[in-house]
Amino acid sequence: MFTGIVAAVGRIESVTPLGATDAGVRLRIAAGGLDLLDVIIGDSIAIQGACMTVIAMGPDSFDVEVSRESLDKTVGLERAGRVNLEKALRLADRLGGHLVSGHVDGLGEVVHFAPVGESHELRIRAPRELARYLAYKGSVVVNGVSLTVNRVSDEADGCVFSINLIPHTVEVTTLQELKPGARVNLEIDLIARYVERMLSAGQAAS
Predict the structure, then answer these.
(1) Which among 30, 82, 102, 116 counts the fewest CB atoms within 10 Å?
(2) Model-level pTM greater than 0.90?
């Protein structure tokens, strides 16, 4: 589990294919400011919001293997570049964001990203299968960052939701690099997922 509070911005230094063209890749991640002293092989680290398992470590880097399935359902893990990093939540940690599983539910598309006063407004189009989980003042994870939804506008094929980004969030995450047309990893609120399941199961049983 994670909180969606990015601990550091690292960088994918190398992408090594694991075998055939339809196989996954091995990534070497420069940890940036992420403290690796308490990280061991087998631990989980969220990279751009996707939970990955550490398989090797260096003094200031770590390696993970990403399956073809994960590559097909996420963005930002297929090439070198900056990435948001967060170590797995410990039971004694502060829950500064919200409960995050690190399992990407789908991809969104940035339709607007621009300054508004000291902050930035970010608008993202979400696909129909995720739109029903997005609500005013609800939580969503974008590229591993826990954010609050300010507005939702429904469309025929999904919805567009708006987020206000404070200067600190823009400064310490890779969200600053977003542009209209960019795709982003989305994870819906964990509680909303269970509520929807309970309601649908109840309707099926009646």
Answers:
(1) 116
(2) yes
